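Study this protein:
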Amino acid sequence: MKHDVIVVGCGPAGIFTALELASYGGLDVVMLDKGKDVEHRRCPANRGLGCVKCNPCNLLSGWGGSGAFSDGKLTLSSEVGGWLNEYLGKEELDSLINYVDELYVKFGAPNEVYGVDMDRIGEFKHKASLAGLKLIPVKVRHLGTERCVEVVKAMRRALEGKVEVKTGIEVEEIIVEEGKLQGVRVKGGEVLKGKYVVVAPGRSGAAWLKREAERLGLKLTNNPVDVGVRVEIPAYVMEHLSDVLYEPKFIYYSKTFDDKVRTFCFNPHGEVITEYYDGVVTVNGQSYVDRRTDNSNFALLVSTSFTEPFKEPIAYGRYIASLANLLGGGVIVQRLGDLKSGRRSTWDRIKRSSVEPTLKTATPGDISFVLPYRYLTNILEMLKALDQVAPGVYSNHTLLYGVEVKFYSSRLELSSKLETKVNNLFAIGDGAGITRGLVQASASGVWVAREILRREGLYKA
């Protein structure tokens, strides 16, 4: 079977590739994803059953990718959410971000934008600097988990009759013969031939893409691996920040090791959830528009750039996560006060805490048996610093869930068109290691689609 364009992955990067191609028409496009269609994606953990290790994970794979059930934050800045600014000019990237944002609004994203009250933001930046923190203010449009699902469903409907979508189909390898791209081979042996292949496997496909790149002789570089914990606090502790910014983004360089620590994925009045990735259970967070809890949660991630001879940052992250799974049977939860006292948490201590955990299936334990001393030191330092901006963060009652790992570590060597050295083979999104958020992942899809349209003589700027 011959196609003009094969898109591997139905997350934001793949979806926006297809939307842009379909808006011009004239090309035979097929999308493939190992997960289920959005109507059939159900996470048992979200129904209180705990992670049953669906393979592939229903939270990460399928139509909409990991973004479908995320908090749905659109960070409208070229400075955060990825590294596209290393491939595109700032003016080009800003234009793409605006274009992507308009499409999200067209498909149901709300009109409200956070991060525009510059007077309040100036006050926050000043206070943060006194605590040794750097506040990165960005404009944010918040969808919420339930609205995020509706948006990707609307995008799915918009592509009906224009693009062929095949879910439950796992791509095993990219076929390149004598240096020329032929197509892909899916599980079961079927070969789909295509003139262009756009690889957008998402975070859940990062390890697969790394293996394929090595097999094809494509050069890889390692992004920093991000490992840390998810912090859960009473919502009022950081409400003065989240009401203005929605997602307060702070960066801290630890005094002990000078390592970069950052907040990530802030969920006001949200819930802590689990994910299943390549054999390990990790932790994440989400928040809804119409379903609010009394807690907020966010990740504290330590970024580490490994140098020679180590070349396996994804494997390192999996190893850390597997330790937590070994000790706790999944995700571990610990009161900050217990961590500081050098003891494991118990359900009895947690029940006496003022913070009730939203992840009921976590196992009380001791995160110090999982995270290396360096990581724990960095995290504790940043919690102290955050307490100066938001008193209560460093409370004994604060809950820490472990571990959270972001698997977008390997980045393919790509041209400014996001093309590999194999002609017509493109790599985009979080799985390719060039983005780490909805907006830049979506923008990378539009960028590559326009390049394909340009080569086919269809694109009109």
Q: What stands out?
A: The chain has a mean pLDDT of 92.
